[in-house]
Amino acid sequence: MTELFERILSNYKASTAETFTRHPIGILLRQDLPEAIRSVIAENNRYKVKGSAGATNWAEVPWVAIFDIIVTVGAKNGYYPVFLFREDMAGFYLSLNQGVTSIKEQYPQTARERLVQSASDFRSRISEFPVGFVDSPIAILKGRRGDRLGGWYELGNVISKFYPADNLPDEQTIIGDILAILKVYAQLVYGDNLSNLNDQPEFDEDAGWEYENLQRFRMHKRFERNATLVAKVKGTQGYMCAVCGFDFEEQYGRIGHQFIEAHHLVPFGSLVGQNVRLDPRSDFAVLCSNCHRMAHRLDDPGDIGALRALLKQVRKKA
Ligand SMILES: [Zn+2]
Ligand SMILES: [Zn+2]
Asked: Separation of 308 CA from ligand 1 center, angstroms?
């Protein structure tokens, strides 16, 4: 595989002066490299490997991507690991990145901000970066970005590893890196499905919300979904609902083991700017799913004392 990367790096620029159709470097990117990558992935029918040197003419930035068909089957949507060659061919990245087409369509005015935000969301959900991977920005293009695809990939980068042309990795390293990034990818995909299920009912609250409040609500949910943070909250506060005392394991047995939701107590109004408080001991409460939903219907969702009082009042009447 190292040899294939080497051939692309040293021949791509010269090739772009030649006829695109049936060019061996194009075939290398569309067929040979994807095939080599496919051969090291175990679950071959779940992952689709695709490479491109451009659709009808040479692309500025050739790429080879691995799509989990649960997430996407093409580069335009979803998120996926992708080998991206720098425009100057000084090296290439293996980057966990995002498709931009649907984001551009959905948010024509704020697509860039959305992409950067979701890159940071993904980052916060990765429990551990694989060895050699970093979250610093990637540089694919030279000069003005404009609407060029390479510029979008720079914004969409979640984590990446760079391989300089003058110090290419050996076969085992590349294979190890592919497998490592696929592991992260799978974690995100499974986490995704779970959190989407949890979110669905909650987002019926979106309906009459002002844009500002909706933004804050989403920010609130992001904190509550941050795996590292939530683990700390549970670690310090345990698994019993702080409002009603519900214990999932007591009620449901094994499947309820260590299940509880973390609720961020800091008032929505202060969730602006960078001064966000995130102390797992004082800025969160652990709540059962019912109490969590009800807490969000309070005038001040951070005031779980009020919820406790309501519950007490109603129970007294009964
Ligand atoms: Zn409860
Ligand atoms: Zn909450």
From this structure: 9
